[in-house]
Amino acid sequence: MTTNMDAYTILYQAKAQMCKSSYKAQKGNVLKEEEIRHMALAVLEEGIKQIRYEYPPNVSKRMQKYYHQNKAFLIDRFSDDVKNLLAL
User: Fold this and answer.
1) Do 39 and 26 contact (CB within 8 A), yes or no?
2) Is residue 27 part of a domain?
3) Where on the tree of life does the source sit, at the highest rank (predicted)?
4) Pick from 40, 81, 44: which is nearest to 64 by CA?
5) Would you say residue 79 lies in a domain?
6) Is the pLDDT of residue 86 over 80?
7) Phi-psi group of 28: left, alpha or beta (phi > 0 → left; psi -120 to 50 → alpha; rest → beta)
8) Which range of residues forms the domain containing residue 44?
9) Which of 32, 47, 64, 87 has the most other CB atoms within 10 Å of its CB?
10) 30-82 confidence digits (pLDDT tens)
């Protein structure tokens, strides 16, 4: 029942991680679709790692389970966010 919240939290966490990371240094470079997907995957993985530290274990485990079950959807969704952030 909380899967929408899990997806939102995972994507929000990944976006926050992206803003802090060196991925922002890629801004202005023309990236291929595969590179954008790879970047999205790396940032999502970092976001999931961060969730482990910021949320109680039961919430963290639920979000990790949701992430692994819906990885393809989240990568597609976040790839669009990466494109939009790099286009700014």
Assistant:
1) yes
2) no
3) Bacteria
4) 44
5) yes
6) no
7) left
8) 3-21+37-87
9) 47
10) 566 677 777 778 878 887 888 888 888 888 888 888 888 888 888 887 777 76
